[in-house]
Design a protein that fits this description.
about 0% strand; 4 helices; mainly alpha; about 70 residues
């Protein structure tokens, strides 16, 4: 989880610098999924979609992460 926490810090900083960048919320949502932080993942996923990420693309990525061996 050290790498995930580091990624989370980087994404937090990216969002701080540009809160309108949808891909940062998308990626942070995926990191939250991997960390088991469902509420945070849902919140960031919703923000990413509002900012322009395709909802089905996000859902597919989350499903792949949740079903990986």
């Amino acid at each position: 989880t050290g790498q995930l926490e580091s990624a989370l810090q980087d994404l937090d900083r990216a969002i701080e610098l540009d809160p309108g960048l949808a891909i940062s919320y998308y990626n942070r949502a995926l990191v939250y999924v991997l960390l088991g932080k469902d509420s945070e993942a849902r919140q960031d996923g919703q923000r990413a979609v509002v900012l322009g990420i395709d909802a089905s693309t996000l859902k597919e990525a989350i499903t792949q992460l949740e079903t990986r061996p």
